[in-house]
Amino acid sequence: MKSIIVFVMLLIVAGCHQREQAAQQPSVVPSATTLRYAEGFRVSYQQGGVKLVEVTYPYQGATEGYRYLLVPRGHEVPEHDPQTKVIQIPLQSIACTSTTHIPMLDYLGESDKLTGFTSTQYVSTAAVRERIDAGKVVELGMDKDVNLERLAVLKPNILMGYSMSSDYAQFRKIEQLGVPVVINAEYLEKSPLGRAEWIKFVALFFDKENAADSIFSAIEKDYLASAQLAAHVAKRPKVLTGIVYSDAWIVPGGKNYAATLLKDAGCDYLWRDDTSHGYLQLSFESVFEKGHDADLWIGVGSFNSLKEVEAADRRYARFRPFKERAVYTSNARSGAAGGSEYLELGYLRPDIILKDLIRIGHPELLEGYALYFHKRLE
Which among 302, 315, 334, 321 is positioned nearest to 361, based on CA atoms? Predict the structure, then answer.
């Protein structure tokens, strides 16, 4: 057991060392990027360090993707499809629209390239918060309220965005300013490691594929070792998750990445037999019928205490895990301005989430491990 704890500590130290190395040393570009879990993008290499990157599934229900031709600065642009966007690399500046993009820049040692973000109050990553506080990151505004004038003045090399639909109108306005939009579709990946592997996507724009591969390999190794630890547990605690939003109780589908994490943590997720990858909207009554006697309740939105949970809806107090004080939030850590570290770093570090869940469901397997993202509500 001590060896597991030592390994976890070594991974954390290694992660810090990898960030320092990535910041100090340029990556030697490999001839291929190997993807083991991510399904939403692919890359092919051409002569002269040119890379053709394809985001194959940019939004839910997409029937075609987007292509980006990454051309080294000073290199002649090869012939290409007119629908393919040409981007000079390595990037010297970038604007982002999701907090999940921030840790990838941080781990790659490229935080200093971030010059614009949609709403800076949500950012938790320390290196980027320093840049924000120093006035080096411009606040751009959210979604359709993006300040186009600020973006025109800032003119980053790219804006990394995400899309929930085929509506490209706002992005088209941004591109008319001369700022290419690159879609990052990490959130659509079906597996936890698939989402984390998108660090390799971001790395392509900075010529840091080797650094990304090393970082991801460490995360993968830690995740798989932890999953193996919980693979043969004798008893799996029944887990309830979610809360009511707008008259519907929202829970992950049985094939959702959150359900995968619970399965890999040796837990019995109550909706494990569902076949959907998204989220289910259920009635309170149906959830109570299925989950009133659950062993654990993990994931209760932004509530910080059992008192707050009960104040929101007195019926919550009827669940067994509420009565037995077995309710956990994933918002144990927040940034200096209140942003959720779980929502920001969680995509990149599913290994930490998994260890948290194992510690909650099977504390004997990770004795001495302190919860990182999660905490029990009092």
Answer: 321
For the entire predicted model, the pTM comes to: 0.90
CA distance 169 to 305: 42
Cα(282)–Cα(201) distance, integer angstroms: 35
CA dihedral 95, 101, 104, 105 (to 10 degrees): 20
Sheet holding 51-55, edge to edge: 41-45, 51-55, 66-72, 85-89
- Model pLDDT for residues 220-271, shown as the tens digit of each residue: 999 999 999 999 999 999 999 999 998 999 999 999 999 999 999 999 999 9
Give the model confidence (pLDDT) of 175-227 as tens digits: 999 999 999 999 999 999 999 999 999 999 999 999 999 999 999 999 999 99
CA distances (Å), origin 270, targets 36, 56, 252, 329, 356: 29, 32, 10, 18, 19
Q: Looking at the predicted structure, is the pLDDT value of residue 22 above 90?
A: no
The domains found in the chain, sorted by start residue, are 2-223 (3.40.50.1980), 230-376 (3.40.50.1980)
Please choose, from the candidates 327, 188, 352, the residue with its C-alpha nearest in 3D space to the C-alpha of residue 255: 188
CA–CA gap between residue 60 and residue 13 (Å, rounded): 37
